[in-house]
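Practice problem: NAD-dependent succinate-semialdehyde dehydrogenase
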Amino acid sequence: MMNSLELTRPELLRHQNFIRGTWSESAGGATLEVINPASNRSIASVPDSDARDARAAVEAATAAFKTWRQETAMQRRQLLKEWHRLLLENGEDLARLMSLEQGKPLAEARGEVAYGASYVEWFAEEAVRVNGDILPSTQEGRRQMVIREPVGVVAVITPWNFPLAMIARKIAPALAVGCTVVAKPSEDTPLTALALARLAEEAGFPPGTVNVLSASRSNGALVGDAWLADGRVRKITFTGSTPVGKHLARESAETLKRLSLELGGNAPFIVFEDADLDLAVAGLMASKFRNGGQTCVCPNRVFVQQTVLDEFVTKLQAAMESLVVGPATHPDATIGPMINSRAVEKIQRHVDDALERGARLVCGGERVQNAVAAGPHFYLPTILTNVGADAVMCHEETFGPVIPVIAFENEPEVVTLANDTPYGLAAYFYTSDMRRAFRLPGLLEAGVIGINEGAVASELAPFGGVKESGYGREGSVYGTDDYVQIKYLCQGQLGGET
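Answer key — C-alpha cells:
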C-alpha cells in the first residue's frame, strides 16, 4: 500500500497513545481509521480516545511537571536538541508518513520536517534565555525581583494541514520553559504526531513530560471538554477554526486558563499597478499553492489594480500550467489531494456560488481524475475573475487551489476591501512605491504582513493574528511569553551594620 512511501523505520508508524511514557490503547478500546486522502483507503488504525484518556494524560503531565519544572535550563535545552537531531535524522520517514496521511507532495513534506524542526532548535536555545529582572530599589534595605515561571500543564490541539510543524511549534516552547504537555492532533493526521512522540521518547524526555493521544472528531470534542474542565490544565494552545476557538475561550473562563488561539484567515493579496508583475505572480504561486491552498495564511482574495488586471491574469495562468496535480507517489506532483470529501465539496460550492454571481472561469473549476490523480479528492488549480465582494469565497476560507481575482481602482478602495472581514491573520501586497511599502502595513488589519514577499514563515518571526483570527504569538523571542507567568519577589530587611 505504501509503495515508494514505505518507512525505513516501521516502528515510527505508531498505533497507540503515548501517556506517562508508555504506549497504550484507548480506555474504551475504540479505534479510528486513518485515511490516505490520495487513495481514500485506510493506512492504519489508532486509538479513538475519550475523556478518560484525556484525564489520564493530565494526571501524567501533572505528576511530571513537579520535577520537569525543576530541571535546569541546560538540561531542557539538551533534550530539545536531541529531539531536533532525531527529527532531522528521521526526516525522510517523517515526510513519507506525512504524505501518506495528509497527502502533500513528498518534496513539500520534506520541507515541513525541516521547518518544524527549526522551531525545536530555536526554542532549545531559548530555554536558557527565560530571564527575569532585578528592579531598582524603592526603599533602603529592600530588593525587588521579577522571575518567569512555567504556567503548568499545557494542552496542545493541532490541525491536519501541517501535522508536524504545528505540533512542534507548540510543544517546543512549552518544554523549553518547563511546562509539560498533553496533545491531541487532528483526527485526519494523528500518525505524524505519534511518530514525534516516539522520537521524544527516544530523545530521553522524562515519562509524562510529553503525552499524545488520538481521537475521532466526535470523541475529540470530549477530550477537549475534559481538558477545559480540568483546573490542572493551565493553558490551551489551539490552531483551527474560529468557531472552535470561541468555544475554547468561553469554556476556559471557568478555570481562567491561558489561551493561544491561531484561528481562521481571509488573507488579501494586493497587486498595485507599479508592482513587478512577475515577482507578484511568483509570490502568489508560492503563498497560494503551498499545501494545495490548504493553509490559514494563503491568499483567499486577490486584489489587482484595474490597469494591470489582464496582464497579471495572463502571467498567472501561464505560471499555473507548471502545476502537476497528483499523489505524493508521483515524482512531479506539486499539488496533492484535498484532505477529504468535505473539503472538495466546500471548494466546489464556493466556485459554483461565484459563477452564479457573475464571475468568469479562466481555468480549472472542477475535480480531476486521471491516470495520475485517480482519487476523489483532487481539484484543478482554478482562476476566477470578475468575482464580486458578495461571493461566499470572499467571506469564508476556501482552503483549496482557487484564486478569485478582484479588480480595484485605488489604494483607499483596496484597503477598505482588504479589511472588510472579521479575520486578520495575514495580508500581502506588491508595490515598487517605497512610501506605500511603509504606509500600507499600518493600514492593513493583520498580524502578519508580506511586503513584496509571499513566503513569510520563519521560526525567528512571531506568528499570529488579530480580530477573529485569534491572539497569542508562536515562534521568535515572543514565543515563550504565553507559556510563562510573572512572579514578583520582594525581599526586605537587607539593611544592617556595615
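Discussion: The mean pLDDT is 96. Students who identified this feature from the C-alpha cells alone can consider the problem solved.
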